[in-house]
Amino acid sequence: MGADGGQNGTGAIIVTGVALDDTPPDLTETVLCLADTLHRVPNPRLPIRPSGTGDLFAALLVAELCNGSSLATSVNAASQYIFAILQRTLIARSKEMLIVATETGSRAAGQNTTDWSISVVPQGGL
Questions:
Q1: Could you give the 3-state DSSP secondary structure of residue 20?
Q2: DSSP-assigned states of every residue in 74-94
Q3: Where are the beta strands (DSSP E) in the chain?
Q4: How many CB atoms lie within 10 A of CB 19?
Q5: What is the largest CA-CA distance in the chain?
Q6: Which member of 13, 43, 57, 90 lies 3.0 to 4.6 Å from 33 by CB, making a disulfide possible if both were Cys?
Q7: Are residues 15 and 30 in contact, defined by beta-carbon separation less than 8 angstroms?
C-alpha cells in the first residue's frame, strides 16, 4: 500500500520464458497475470539463450503501450517480436540477437529528420 492508503503499480505481473505444469515441452510461454485473469502467449521453444531478451521484451512492450495498445495486446505483440528475432538469430547462427534498425525518415532540402524503427521478421518468415 502507498502512503495514502492506495495501491501502487498496475496490479499486473509479466513473466517470460515460463513452462507451467500444462505447457507442452516444445513450447515456452509469456504469462500476464492480472487480478482475475491469466493471459498466456505460447511460442515454440528455441534452442538459443542470447543475452538481452528481457531488456528487449521490456522495450517492445513499452513501445506497444505508448502506441495505445492494451497491456494484453502489448504483451502478445512483444512476445511475437521476440520470437521472430530469436528465430532469425537461430537461423543465422548468430551469437547476438539480429535486430535491424532501418532509416525511415526523409532528408528534404533544409530538413534533417530521421526516424528509426525496429524491423522484425514475422513468424511466417519473409
A1: coil
A2: HHHHHHHHHHHHHHHHHHHT-
A3: 13-18, 27-33, 38-44, 100-103, 116-119
A4: 12
A5: 60
A6: 13
A7: yes
Rounded to whole angstroms, the Cα distance separating 89 from 98 reads 5
Amino acid type, 102:
T
What is the per-residue pLDDT across 36-49, written as a single tens digit (0 to 9) for each? 899 999 999 999 99
Q: How far is CA 113 from CA 21, 103, 118, 119, in A?
A: 50, 10, 17, 19
C-alpha cell at 114: 530521421
Return the C-alpha torsion angle 23, 25, 27, 29, nearest 10. 40
Dihedral of the CA atoms 69, 55, 104, 101 (nearest 10)? -150
The conformation of residue 96, written as its DSSP 8-state character, comes to S
- pLDDT tens digits for 6-46? 567 778 999 999 999 999 999 999 999 998 899 999 999 99
Confidence (pTM): 0.73
Residue 103's identity, in one-letter code, is: E
